Structures are given as C-alpha cells and as structure tokens.
C-alpha cells in the first residue's frame, strides 16, 4: 500500500482519478541497467514472520469468529485479487489500484479478517510465469497483510470510542494515510536493502505524478472508500460490484497519467541533453583541432625545421663560395623536404580516413587517457586498446562516448582506478569504461547531468548497443557494443 500511496502521490497524475493504488515489490527491468542485487531474503522473511505471528495470535483469539464468517470474505478476496492482477509497472515495483477497496475493507472487516483478505488476495501475475521467487512472493503478500491489519486495527480503535456517523470520512482519511505510509516504508526499505540506494531517493523515485494530482487522487480514494463502507451495511457484497467500475476507470486514468508524466520528463531531458550536446560538440571540435596541432608539431614540424636549417646552410655556402660543400648539403635539403612532404601527405591521409587524428581510434584513446590522468588527484587509467577497423562516423562516436565516460569517471566517481578497453572480433566491436568509484543509480534523474543520455543517443545513432552497470558504492561499467 505504501507504494500505492507513492504511486498515487506521483502517478495519480490524472485529476479525474477516483482511486489510489497499492504497490508490490518486483524485480524491475534490467535490460539497460543491471545493478547487482544484494541478498534481501532475511528482510523478506523477517516481515513475513511478523505477519505470521500476528495471524497466529489473531487465530488464537478470534479463530471462531473468522471461521464463522469466512463466506463473507470471499467477495472481498475475489475483487481484490482481480484488481491485483491488473497492476501498473513501476520502478523496481508495480502497483495495483486497490487502495479504495482496501480502505473500505479495513473499516468494515475486523483486523484479522482484513489481514487475511490482504494476504490471500495479493496475487501477482508474474507468480504464474515463475518470475517471482518464493521469498519475494511471500513478502508481497505479508506486507499487504500487515498494511490491512494496522489500518483496520486503527479504524476499530477509533470506532470503539465513538460511533458518530459523521466521523466515517475523517476516519477513512486516517486509515488510508497510515496504510500508505506503512506500504511505502516496507517496500521502499526492501528496495534500499536489495540495491543499496538511499531511502530518500527510493521514495522520490517511487513517486508518480505531481503533488497536486496525488492529493486529489488521495481525497477521491478516501471518499470512495467511505461511500463503500456506508453502503455496505444496506446492500452488503453487491456494493463491491458497483465499486469495480470506478476502480478500473481509475486504473486507466492512472496509467494514462503516468504515460503523460514519462513523456514530459523524456521531452525535457532530451531538450536539455540537446543543449548540452551542442556545447560539447563545440568543445570536441576544439579537441580535434588540438589533436591535429599535436600531430603537426610532433610529426611534421621537425622535418620542416631541418629544411629551414639546411636552407640557411646552403645560403652560407653560396655567400662564402664553398661550392664543394653544397654538393653534400644540397642532398640533405632535398631529403628533408621530401620527408616533410611525405609526412604531411600521410597526416592528411590519416585525417581523411579518421576524424580523431593520426592512427585512428586506438592511439586517440591512448592520448585521451594520458591527458586525463595527468592531475595529482586523478585516478590511474589503465588502457588496453586494440587497433580496430571501422568507418569514420563510428570511430568518432566511440571516441566521443569514451571521452564522456572517462571524463565522468575522473570528475565524479572518486575512483582510484579506471579501465578502458577496446577490442573486436569478427562479429562485434566492444568498448568498455570501468571504474571502482562510488557508483550511482542510473535510473534516478539528476538535474544537470545528461552524460548517460548523450552517450546512449550517440551509440544509438551508429546502431550500437549501450549498457550501464552501476549501483551505489559498487563502481560503474559502461559498455558499447557495435555489431559488424
């Protein structure tokens, strides 16, 4: 339920949403980002054992009441199971739009009844596909059982002291809020333990939509739950059928709202990334000019200097009448001029074949690593690059990606070592940049940081696949694979 509240807080982007949503912990996609998960099973089993202890105590105290009214629970279980089988996928979790029904169950049923309903109805479609481990599946159900129990217990504590009908709506708000907070805490803590992300960042990432949308959806959910609880005394389980329609409509509104939020975020990110890419393009042109200047200085300037020197020697021979010396000095002048001409011709040919200087990609990466590792605080850069053959566009793109990755590692990773590898075989050209620094969560949006997005766009432009493998305190590995 917490992630329900989180999803609703952010994901209930539609102002017309009639409900909240609850979330179950899931593994999430690891196609692009593949952080190594920690062993979170002790936490899963600890939460599950807490719920089992509460269940055992409840059966001991209210076992006869539960057995005598079990038929009353079936419609609730069926309805909530149906809603749970229609989740909305999110970041490391998914959410089911069941919060209004769950809040009504907390008001109407006893705490132990509500807890059993939450546990038995916590279906996950991935369970049927074998994509959820037993410990994770039991945790998902147990944390829902705990959420339902505490929400119902709180509601019954208040109603035991007053039976004022006018308090049903405030009571629904109170119960709903507590259920959301507990769901947030249990699922968010599981993600924090498993992946090492800071808890506040997990909470921020789990949010969907805006604060205003969340507040409106939360109010709508509470009102709907209060109406269901008030009508249940008159028409009993039939009211559950009436509530199913608004619940499913709310799910669709929630899904469309999240699509709008994701699209807006992607548009803003691309716009900012394009602006930064324009600035980087100008800087890279300066880098390319510096590389050309370095090649001219190292390869051509010395032969040209010898030409100039030999010209002065010949001039001195002529002025002093040493004609015999000219026979020896003139061939040296001709040889120096030919060497300078040949080197310049080779350099021009290299530049026509490669936009990143003489020798192509491998020497350019070695020069880049040498220039970035010059500072006293800079990490040690280990270079293992092979001479590869590819077209100029791909070569330039790979160089730019490597430059961005190395610059990020040197500036932000606090790494001691950085490894850059370039290799190829008959089917694939592979570039990797790895560091042993502090790492980061690639899925979190960081204001002003578009390096990952820019590298991904550049890789996509040349048909390459781009991967990021990082998590907090575990370094980072960036891989670009280009099929032949």
Per DSSP E runs of 2 or more residues, the count of β-strands stands at 8
Strand-pairing-aware structural class:
alpha+beta
Subunit arrangement of the protein: single chain
At CATH level 3, the topology of the largest domain is: Arp2/3 complex 21 kDa subunit ARPC3
C-alpha-based Rg, rounded:
33 Å
The assigned CATH architecture of the largest domain is Orthogonal Bundle
Write down the secondary-structure element order: HEHHEEHHHHHHHHHEHEEHEE
Question: How many DSSP helices?
Answer: 14
Number of domains: 3
Largest sheet: 5 strands, mixed
CATH class of the largest domain reads Mainly Alpha
List segments where confidence is low: pLDDT < 50 over at least 5 consecutive residues: 1-24, 26-35
Question: Which band does the percent of strand residues land in?
Answer: 5-15%
Terminal Cα separation, in Å? 48 Å
Instruction: Estimate percent helicity.
Output: 55-70%
Q: Largest beta sheet: what is the strand line-up? A: 4-5-6-8-7
Mean pLDDT: 76
From the spread of the alpha carbons, the general shape counts as rod-shaped
